[in-house]
Amino acid sequence: MIVIPALHPVRFLAVLSLLWIGVTTSAGATTHPGQAELVSEVARDTGKNPQALNALLDGATRQQSILDAISRPAEGKSWKDYRPIFLTDKRIGDGIAFYREHRALLDRIGRQYGVAPQYIVAIIGVETNYGRNTGSYKVLDALVTLGLYYPPRATFFREQLKELLEMPDNHLGGPIDQLTGSYAGAQGWGQFMPTSIRDFAVDEDHDGRIDLQNSLPDIFASVANYFARHGWVSGGPVAARAQPDVSAKAITVKDAQPQWPLEQFEAWGYAPLRPLPPAQPTSLQMLAGDHGPEYWFTFQNFYVITRYNRSPLYAMAVDQLAHAIVAGVGPLDAVQ
User: Fold this and answer.
1) Contact 148/32 with Cβ under 8 angstroms?
2) 18 pLDDT above the threshold of 50
3) Could you state, in order of their start, the residue ranges of all structural domains in the chain?
4) Deepest in the core among 78, 145, 197, 278, taking most CB within 10 A?
5) Active site residue 127
6) Hey, which residues does 261 pair with through a beta bridge?
7) Residues 6+ apart with CB under 8 A from 124
8) Record's superkingdom (predicted)?
9) Mean pLDDT within 259-270
10) Per-residue pLDDT for 60 more than 80?
11) Which residues share a beta bridge with 244?
12) What is the pLDDT of residue 294?
């Protein structure tokens, strides 16, 4: 029992006031802006202990290097500078070796989800160099930094942080405060954000948990499921070169979603360099290549790749890496 010495009434009231201020300040203090509201929402939605949630967030650190990295993404480069990052002889060779090593599993998952397996390999190749570099940032630090200190995209990253805090333990691959990933908070060989883990990740090896860091069946199937759920067309084209004539109409597209039939582009002065169905729904991308503008017809499967990363440069790199890998592997009997 704590014994409080007798005090003059005025002094006694003053001590009580100081104690009350100390208690309320301690209870209401938070490490990060918006933390109290976030903890309240997660506790309300999941029943998780607010003290435990606050302890997790108190241990997270705002990282200036993360804010610096998001301000200079590789997708801000031109195609002639972006392409050499991913279409190197080594990355192609490593992709061929990776496919050959895991071909039986990749082909099975490709057939199961209706997704060409070379694109599963290419995604992993572009994202993490076939699992060699999954990121060294603490995921919690990344999402706290971007969700609570980066106003331009705070809404998106706060949603990712909330989902991370709400995620079941068997979807995490480890304790929240020990997970590592990219500066944007993406995890595993396929670099899934928390909402993508929630919506598209798969326990393909049926061990009762989703492990995007150590289970190749889970990794491959999660990428394939992401594509399938976003509308991948089995056997469909991704991109094809286009040649404009001197009177070609200037075209502005808002994104990679196919908007017109190919024959409409031909009427506007853009010809395919290989035979394609005239009614094929199509979009058009103009990229700054080594020798000037490159024009590309892009299709539904190209659009699906941009659901993984919205940059058309990214989607084109994945497509070209996939073609280079499959050319090195040889004839496939899986889904094309």
Assistant:
1) yes
2) no
3) 76-131+218-330
4) 145
5) yes
6) 281
7) 98, 130, 131, 189, 190, 219, 223
8) Bacteria
9) 96
10) yes
11) 270
12) 96
- Nearest residue to 60 via CA among 32, 26, 34, 29: 32
Say if residue 14's pLDDT is above 50.
no
State in words which class domain 76-131+218-330 has: mainly alpha
Q: What is the percent of the chain with per-residue pLDDT over 70, rounded to a whole number? A: 90
Which residues share a beta bridge with 240? 297
Which are the contacts of 150, defined by CB distance < 8 A and separation ≥ 6?
Answer: 67, 70, 157
Which of 75, 127, 166, 263 is flagged as catalytic? 127
Give the integer Cα–Cα distance in Å for 183 and 203.
25
Residues in contact with 56: Cβ distance below 8 Å, sequence separation at least 6, in sequence order: 140, 165, 176, 177
By the 10 Å C-beta count (0-12 exposed, 13-18 middle, 19+ buried), 132 is classed as: exposed
How many whole angstroms separate alpha carbon 262 and alpha carbon 297? 8
Assign 3-class secondary structure to 282-302: EEEEEEEECCEEEEEEECHHH
